[in-house]
Amino acid sequence: MAAFIVRRLLAAVILLVVVSMMTFAIFFLVPKLAGMNSDQMALRYVGRGATAESIQATKERLHLDDPLPVQYGRFVQGIVVGDEFNYGPEVVKCPPPCFGYSFRNSQPVTALLIDRIPVTASLAFGAAILWLVGGVSIGVLSALRRGSVFDRAAMSTALAGVSLPIYFTGLLSLALFAYHWKLWPNGVNYVPFTTNPLDWAYNLILPWVTLAFLYAALYARLTRASMLETMNEDYIRTARAKGLPERTVVVKHGMRASLTPILTIFGLDVGLLLGGAVLTESTFSLPGLGQLVVDAVFGNDLPIVLGVVMVASVFVILANLVVDVLYAALDPRVRL
Amino acid sequence: MNRPVEQWASMVPVDDYAPTAFLDVRDLRIHFPTDDGLVKSVDGLSFTLERGRTLGIVGESGSGKSVTSLGILGLHKGQHARVSGQVWLDGEELVAASPEHVRRLRGKKMAMIFQDPLSALHPFYSIGDQIVEAYRVHNEVSKKQARTHAIDMLGRVGIPRPSERVDDYPHQFSGGMRQRAMIAMALSCDPELLIADEPTTALDVTVQAQILDLVRDLQAEFNSAVMIITHDLGVVAELADDILVMYAGKAVEQGSAREVFTAAEHPYTWGLLSSMPRLDRDRQDRLVPIAGSPPSLINVPEGCAFHPRCRFCELSAPLSLTEVPVMTETTPGHGVACHLEPAQRRRLWTEEVQPLL
Predict the structure, then answer these.
(1) In 10 A of CB A34, how many CB atoms?
(2) Is residue B5 over pLDDT 70?
(3) In contact, B245 and B251? CB cutoff 8 Å
(4) B259 with B331: CB under 8 angstroms?
């Protein structure tokens, strides 16, 4: 088991290095290959109406004329040990992990990320609990009562759930619950958990439910399919032949086997969402990573985009790692 | 003709029928409604089995052997199957009994060994846990006692170092060991009726022989009634006291193993015997397979279900094309469901079939 975890950790580190290379390549290598010279590259890192001097200064600051490997080395160095920026009168220290400064408001990207991560994490974890509990229980019940009215109703709703985009269900729920029935008269305004846990939860209910609805629909369908398949397995027949009560057959033998693959998908979905629930955050104006990156993309704020991409990758890789280890703990066949 | 016999059986009220044996199956019918029509997997099957005896049920795939065994265990309850008829086990009728009551008997009074133990054992639980579970459902014992019992059972079925292997998972066992573990699980509550569904299909020949020896020894020890389901006549020859030959959900021939092997009277049984390789004879010819394939259980052929594949069909025509033959005794304890005259059958057996075996 320990060897397995070490192996997975090593793989995760290697993956992280590859991701950093890819990210770097997308932002620095691809433009170069597309024929951009260093002046044009520097132009993307300064605001509108930049002077020739500021372009030149930026070019030097970002060392855009250095060979690519050197640039990559500096990029990694910034993340690992931090960086220093010489703005003339003073030298600004950028502690690790340093992704540079937003050129639109000159704030350090790292601070922005740290500011936004709790919002996205609140949204993602809250919704994850809702959809896991809701989706899985509906899926299991549907499978056990296959063909019943409940099954049909649940699966029709689930089909609607996976087909309706967040910006539709989100806006609809806002229109109905927040503005028509005035349950959230001021709309949704994020309040940090540490400020007031009740307000935090109150303001997140609509986003949670909206996001969870989509995923719960997906999970209900997945769980139902997985459960139906499992309940047809020979070992379920064996469990019944032993004379086990049906509840034990379903919970201990059926669900244990059918939910293990669901767990894998769950881990990956949560990891992905932690990198920014773009649509939900935009719909409900939640100041999370997703909204940060959308604004950054529209504003051509490359350091922020780069920072969010790296953070999102870390979350996905971590989620993969957790899922792998959990899977090994749950499925004895994996421990080889 | 004595055709109404089948109908009588289903008309006898449950209260009026007294079972004559430890296991007495009367006119069992198991039908599955599907979109394509009614699948009559088992259609009017009757047989008896006493404690200490072994009954071999043989037939091709789809003849209703496995469905019968699952029906006896009550594993079709709550499913879409329509089950009728009677299954008497030790004086209790099981078809009409409550699912909960049958569940309590399952695993304790009657147990089953499944084929393909890799898929029949749960991949996520250790062998020991699965045996402990089977034992503790029916016995009020502590986990520790149950574990000791599981180790003991594993040792009895011939697993080496059982106290270590008890914590292994099914994928860590070899095929033969998995089947032994499966047997240990089935025997953990000392069942009085043991049903083995093709227990040796997935195993190689040497392991097959070991498993069959094991079943025989354990039967002698527990004095249980054993039903062994197989398409392998070799297995039946090895183990069974009595043989029931099934075709298309019905019994076509039943009798003592000796009778069926030495004086078979049904053309289908002849076909099975001719397609069995024999090592105790010199053979010049190829094996003779039964022509054609098993019938659809939705549209079973009119008359005798075997007639489209029967070499001797014309001899009993037109009866064989229109009338369903009824199981009748030819000699005491030996029943055959065939329209051929008994004298004619015996002549065909001695003159045409037996010399070629």
Answers:
(1) 8
(2) no
(3) yes
(4) yes
CB B352 within 8 A of CB B267: no
* Contact by Cβ (8 Å): B137, B104: no
Kindly list the residues from chain B whose CB atom is less than 8 angstroms away from the CB atom of residue A335.
Answer: none
pLDDT(B298) > 50? yes
User: Given CB atoms, is B106 within the 8 Å cutoff of chain A?
Assistant: yes
| HSE (side-chain half, CA atoms, 13 Å) at B23 | 27
Say whether pLDDT at B229 is over 50.
yes
Asked if A239's CB is within 8 angstroms of B124's CB, the reply is: no
Question: Is the pLDDT assigned to residue B88 strictly greater than 80?
Answer: yes
Cross-chain Cβ contact A253/B122 below 8 Å: yes
Q: Which of A145, A226, A238 is the best mutation test for B, with the most CBs of B within 10 A?
A: A238
Looking at residue B6, what is its pLDDT? 41
Helix (H, G, I), strand (E, B) or coil at B196: strand
Rounded Cα distance between A13 and A11, Å, is 5
Q: Evaluate if residue B239 carries a pLDDT over 70.
A: yes
Task: Give the CATH fold of the A109-330 domain.
Answer: MetI-like fold (1.10.3720)
Query: What is the reported pLDDT for A303?
Result: 82
Write phi, then psi, for B236 (nearest 5 degrees).
-65, -45
Query: Pseudo-torsion of CA B257, B263, B266, B267, nearest 10°?
Result: 120
- Tens digit of pLDDT for each residue in B99-117? 999 999 999 999 999 988 8
Q: What is the pTM of this model?
A: 0.84
A235, A243, A330: residue with CB nearest B120: A235
Interface of A with B (CB under 8 A): 233-235, 237-246, 253, 256-257, 260, 330-333
Domain layout of chain B by residue ranges:
5-109+191-356
Interfacial B residues in 132-171 facing A (CB < 8 Å): 133-134, 137-138, 169, 171
CA distances from B126 to A103, B172, B175, B181, B184 (A): 59, 10, 15, 11, 14
> Of A171 and B280, which is predicted with more confidence?
A171
Fold of B5-109+191-356: Rossmann fold (3.40.50)
Which tokens belong to B66? 């496995």
pLDDT at A336: 54
pLDDT at A78 over 90: no
CB contact under 8 A, A256 and B106: no
ipTM associated with this complex = 0.87
**pLDDT bucket at A87, cuts 50 / 70 / 90:** low
Question: Which of A234, A243, A253 lies nearest to residue B119, judging by beta carbons?
Answer: A234
Q: Closest residue of A to B114, CA-based?
A: A238
Residues of A in contact with B123 (CB under 8 A): 235, 257, 331-333
Instruction: Tell me the chain B residues in contact with residue A235 when contact means C-beta distances shorter than 8 Å.
Output: 119-123
DSSP line for A86-124: E-SSSEEEEPSSP--B-TTT--BHHHHHHHHHHHHHHHH
